[in-house]
Predict the 3D structure of the following.
Amino acid sequence: MIRSFFRPPEIPAPVERTPVVLLGGHPGSHDARALAAGLPPWREVMGALASGADGVRLPVTRDTFWDLHRIAATAAYLVGAGRKAPALPPFVPNPLPDAPAALEGWLGELRGALEGFAVQIDAPSDELMALLATVAGAADPLNRGILLRLLGALTGGVFRGPATVHVDVANACNVNCIYCWFHSPLSADREDAAEFDTAWRSEMLDWATFEKLIDDLDGLDAREDVLLSGKGEPLLHPQCLDMVRAVKARDLGCTLFSNGVLVREEARRAVVEAGLDLLYVSLSSASPEVYEAIHPDHDGVAELEEVRANVRALTQLKANRGTPTPRVMMVDVVNSLNAHEVLDFYEQARDLGAEHVRYQLQHVQPYNAQLRIRPDQVEQLRLDIAEAHRREAEGGPSIVPNIDWQLATLEVSSGVWGHGRTPDEGCYVGWTFSRTWTNGDVSFCCSPKVVDSLHERSFSEIWQGERYAKFRNAARDLATHGDMTFSNGAKLLGDHCVGCPNYEGIGKLAEDLRRYGLEQFVRGRDRQRLRDASPDS
Ligand SMILES: C[S@@+](CC[C@H](N)C(=O)[O-])C[C@H]1O[C@@H](n2cnc3c(N)ncnc32)[C@H](O)[C@@H]1O
Ligand code: SF4
């Protein structure tokens, strides 16, 4: 009996002290991934840590590995009880053919740096290792840039700078192309015309900002193309030729856009000697009458002849020096005033010694809609472009294939092209392209979508930073995130996205995924979107 009064003291059952799982370095990135993985949100993770959870566990998956240094730094801070979190480097998949081993090595480095912190880094997931092995297996000395950008697009990370950086050098222009977004006499009717005032016209990119930018591009291995252009004529910038020299001195690819008027002797010598790769000459006419119609109040005979003479002299100079560069791309912005001349334009390009022709259907905006291709011109235009391709096949200047896609998507009644394909669905421009304005703003794409400013942060910091990552990843699903806004109030999915000039890059990305056996890693909606973006579909 006595024994029944004896009760052993109540011992609470041992509390299961498991580490919490952290998937992002801040609430936004953690919650997005946790929601997809069915794991507790940031709020609950913080609650568990406050009530004594046993440290933090970090899964290493294709969604987290590129960000793991930041997640680990946050984890160390959270469990560090006031101790300073160590500085952790990002993953660099270098050399690419050894990417899986490089990952293991880096994870070892992180684990070493976090010794003494209650942070546990998991083994990498099988899916991540398979992805890295496929990328590594496809690597050769020429495709490193492409593969690193594909790896970024498949994982959400960024492992290399953009393939093309469009650098706006000057806003002013010495001509007034009637279709031009900024300098057409018609553009006075733009809703935002007041923004393009005298102060804006005199704005030029300053040298210090430019030099820092190209140093950063060099550091980010963004070697393919620094494109010097602008909302005006870049050769009006007094240091434009020094810019070409500076880009080439760093062994980066360089393209220069010009209307051709200022491609005079000094400029020709400078671009040949510096090794400029490609010169675009936007002429859009092949006769004095059309030149005058395209450039109201300009002397069609003298100015057209001046541009022709400049290009001819450049061809001659290249021949004299025995160099193929800069290759010349004659640009024809096709509209109702010059559509009848596309074959003459082709022959003119051949006659001037140009290597390439780019026909570009005019972007139709409310202010220039009166210049759109008329329905009665479309059939002949299609026949003439087909004939130009025939001449190309016989050895004439090469034609950039963009025109075929533009004509294929042309809505005859409105003259608008590009509907019904990317990027309404999804956009991958965040891995391949970036644009900087004369005022130092960094824009997500050609239309004004301001991510940050070069006067606030370096291009490297901006490109690798969380803000860019947020837009880059959101743009993959424009249908869901199209309303996201940039710092200038522009929406991620805006009117400019119709007839987007970057659709060519997006289509190429889809093609490359297939070429390198990476399509198997494309998930869910992305899979269909990339298929739609493929040039073959
Ligand atoms: C704005 S310009 C600046 C560089 C230089 N002034 C030039 O004309 O090449 C850049 C490119 O945009 C093209 N462009 C201008 N307005 C256009 C429009 N409405 N539609 C299509 N292309 C246009 C020009 O022909 C040129 O190739
Ligand atoms: S030359 Fe270029 S910037 Fe100048 S008006 Fe023409 S398209 Fe616009």
